[in-house]
Write a structure and sequence with these properties.
This protein is α+β, with helices and mostly antiparallel strands and 515 residues long. The protein contains 18 helices and 15 strands.
């Protein structure tokens, strides 16, 4: 049995299928992520290595060159670039576009461990990070209050940051700017020289003494206890009393004998003002794959709650959004959404004027919501998001989705006017044009299908564009071969006599003017 014959004989079955498409399509639409562009893969990995106190030339010789020699053996690398600064080595590795970013990042981490024996032991662990342009901060928030710089930073880091991290789908919250508390140990050069000590020795002793060391276990006949030595610093006094050496093997040398210990702030490198008032910047990142607009809205709701709760306890407290990464996306969605709705409206008007029948217009117009919602289902299965490219595809496809249904409906209508019953006209009319309808759809697929398989950066942008059009066209073909003949058989009615009421006369006047 052919599909259009099944639709005519089993209208309830076909109706249930399309109701299911509508329901699942709405659910899929609500579950799709929203972003400005498709998920683009730029496999670029950076390796940052710190070696404090080392000049750029030494960084290149001691750190960068050994790491580059090991990393250059990784398959798929296109370019390696390095930058050496005082105490910092930055290596940028660019892989071919066919390489997955996560795979490239893992390969670099594995090779870095092999390079450790070839670089000085004092070098800090390398920081390996894959650059993902979709992982940009979605919100930039500023925090200001009438507090000291240290108190303001503690408020942001210990109070505000955990509250924002509790929001669903927030992946990372970073506090930038501000000045942390630091303990400064200011050594006296003359006293060090007098006791034959070096700054390196003092630093090493401070680091070693400030640790909690496990001491094993002790037990009696009944109980067993774990023993540990507590060396972690709890106050400035404990730092001052730390013994760093025994001068002359008899007199202990404490930190207080050779240095001054004081609480201070770290060096100021950045400064932020909001309306002339000192503030901190808090960057909020979404979880990978999350809906950017939804996450931004939830964070802004949380910010409103925080402002309401904390303004009564902190003078001048204000948490404000100064940069909203979701706003351009929302504006784009509204703009393209208006274009799609306007396209649907104009399409229906044009079809109505040409077919000169409200029933025919309704039968063919049903293909638009069915095809669009069906496309959302296939987009969700393919892992696409609602972005500029997919919305552009849907707005372009609006004028194509109704073509197949128009061809089928017009041929059925011709048979009805020739005297056939609606069911016979639906079967014969669809059978005559089925190959033409399939050929029309395949022609569109032949044009836009290859666009989805372009290579390079352009291919990554247009993959979702091409496939979204193909998804919508396939659903429209299914609608033209099932819903259009089924509605024509049971809803179109026979060729009716000419009506003479006011609405009918007005309609005939409009059609006469249009013709």
């Amino acid at each position: 049995m052919k599909i259009y014959e099944l639709a005519i004989k089993r209208p309830t079955f076909i109706t249930c299928i399309f109701f299911m498409i509508v329901v699942v399509g709405v659910v899929s639409l609500r579950g799709l992520g929203v972003d400005l562009f498709p998920n683009i893969n730029f496999p670029i990995v950076t390796v940052t290595t710190m070696y404090p106190g080392t000049g750029p030339a030494e960084m290149e010789t001691l750190v960068t060159k050994p790491i580059e020699d090991v990393l250059s053996t990784i398959a798929g690398i296109k370019n390696i670039k390095s930058t050496n600064k005082e105490g910092v080595s930055i290596i940028v590795l660019e892989f071919s576009l066919s390489t997955d970013s996560k795979y490239a990042e893992q390969q670099v981490k594995d090779r870095i461990s092999a390079a450790r024996p070839h670089i000085p032991q004092e070098v800090n662990e390398s920081l390996v990070r894959a650059i993902d342009f979709s992982e940009m901060p979605i919100l930039m928030v500023t925090l200001k209050a009438e507090k000291t710089p240290a108190e303001l930073f503690d408020l942001a880091d210990q109070t505000i940051k955990p509250l924002l991290q509790q929001v669903n789908d927030v992946g990372l919250v970073e506090v930038n700017g501000g000045r942390k508390k630091e303990i400064h140990v200011l050594l006296d050069r003359e006293k060090l020289h007098h006791r034959n000590l070096s700054a390196t020795t003092v630093a090493a002793q401070l680091a070693q003494a400030g640790k909690n060391v496990p001491g094993g276990r002790t037990s009696n006949h009944e109980n067993e206890a774990v023993v540990r030595t507590l060396g972690e610093y709890t106050s400035l006094a404990t730092i001052r009393d730390t013994v760093v050496s025994f001068f002359g093997n008899e007199i202990p040398t404490k930190i207080s004998d050779i240095a001054r210990v004081e609480e201070a702030l770290e060096d100021e490198r950045t400064r932020t003002f909001v309306d002339g008032v000192p503030a901190l910047v808090i960057n909020v990142y979404r979880r990978s794959g999350a809906n950017t607009v939804a996450v931004a809205e939830e964070v802004k709701k949380k910010i409103a709650i925080i402002n309401k709760d904390y303004q009564a306890f902190h003078q001048g407290f204000a948490l404000e959004v100064v940069q909203d990464g979701a706003q351009p996306i929302k504006n784009n969605l509204i703009d393209v959404g208006e274009s799609i709705l306007l396209g649907i409206l104009l399409t229906i008007i044009v079809v109505f004027l040409f077919l000169a029948s409200a029933r025919s217009t309704l039968i063919t117009g049903i293909a638009l919501p069915n095809s669009l919602l069906g496309a959302f289902i296939l987009m969700a299965v393919a892992g696409f998001t609602i972005n500029t490219m997919t919305l552009l595809a849907l707005s372009l496809a609006v004028g194509l989705l109704i073509d197949d249904a128009i061809v089928v409906r017009e041929n059925i209508f011709r048979h009805i006017e020739e005297g056939m019953s609606p069911r016979e006209a639906a079967r014969h009319g669809t059978e005559e044009v089925v190959m033409a309808v399939v050929a029309t759809t395949l022609t569109v697929l032949a044009v836009f299908g290859p666009v989805a398989f372009l290579q390079g950066v352009v291919g990554q942008f247009f993959k979702e564009f091409g496939l979204t059009i193909c998804f919508a066209m396939l659903i429209s073909l299914f609608d033209a071969l099932t819903m259009a003949p089924m509605l024509s058989a049971y809803f179109a009615g026979k060729s009716t006599k000419v009506r003479s009421n006011i609405v009918a006369r007005a309609g005939r006047g409009i059609f006469a003017i249009f013709n």
